[in-house]
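Lecture 7 notes: from sequence to structure.

We start with a single chain of 348 residues. Read the sequence below before looking at the structure.
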Amino acid sequence: MTELRADAKAYPHPHVREAWLDKVREDIIEPDLPIVDPHHHLWHDRPSGRYLIEDLAADLASGHNIVATVFMQCGWLHRPDGPEYFRPVGETEAVNACAILSARGAYGRARACAGIVGFADLRNPDLDAVLDAHVAAGGGRFRGIRHIVAWDETVIPTTSVVPPPGLLRDPAFVRGVQRLGERGMTFDAWLYHTQLKDLLAVARAAPGTPIVIDHVGGPLGGGPYRGRRDEVFAAWKQDIAELAGCPNVYVKLGGLAMPVNGFDYHEDALPPTSGRMAADWTPWFATCIERFGVARCMFESNFPVDKGMCSYPVLWNAFKRIASGASAQEKAALFHDTAARFYKLPEG
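Now the structure, written as tokens:
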């Protein structure tokens, strides 16, 4: 791992506190609106707490009309042995097993993990062989790759993959992103706002690959970025506008309830209301919607990571407040259609 600056700071995910989250309850806004949640994880081995299919099912049944979800790689249940490059296929195997049970109604009406995004090292010369293994393990649900690139010299990575700096500028990595598109697969880009210019170069070099920016591009708000939100927003907004010019790039609206973003809801006596989150996040989400249009934007939960700061029903209420002025067609795109189309989810 590349040495970080002495003042670099870790931002671990807050532990999920159900009793604290229960202190704020709200009536569900527009409970019949169909939703695809295109970004969540499963795990049992994190300091922040476990989140297995049963826990996901409980959140999905908490009031909103979640019809399907997409699992996002997080380093869960990799194979314990065998070639190193192929070990992440174990995650796809485990998630597909959960998806099979969900499809048979074991966990309620929602089709949990209807799409699966796994991990593969995009620099691997044998990338195709690893992708073939993911496809075989995914039971028709495997959709693409997230190879985490989030790196900033002031942040100690706490993610499942610790990337080197400059990964987006690595020609081998760019070739891997291009290969995903050639194979009809997607690329999820989890990065910080300081890396958006690098992603722009990748998007232009791989115009045939559908790319989605996770968590509105990771605007940093802690450490040396604390107290500089206006400055960060201005730089982020300019880069987002340029990325919106690439028709293969989409954006996920969510993921801001993480310590690295600096909103720090987890430090308060009460969890945030949907109104508070909507007020805090509207500038970021509205900018993305304005630039990308609803056909390239999708709301996401980022659970259970964001569950350290807010509950599932209150989070989706916040999204609905942000979209309150949208038409029925626009809401359908933001909450369901864009995600379903991007990840090629089956109908019904």
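DSSP finds ten helices and ten strands in the chain. Keep this in mind for problem set 3.
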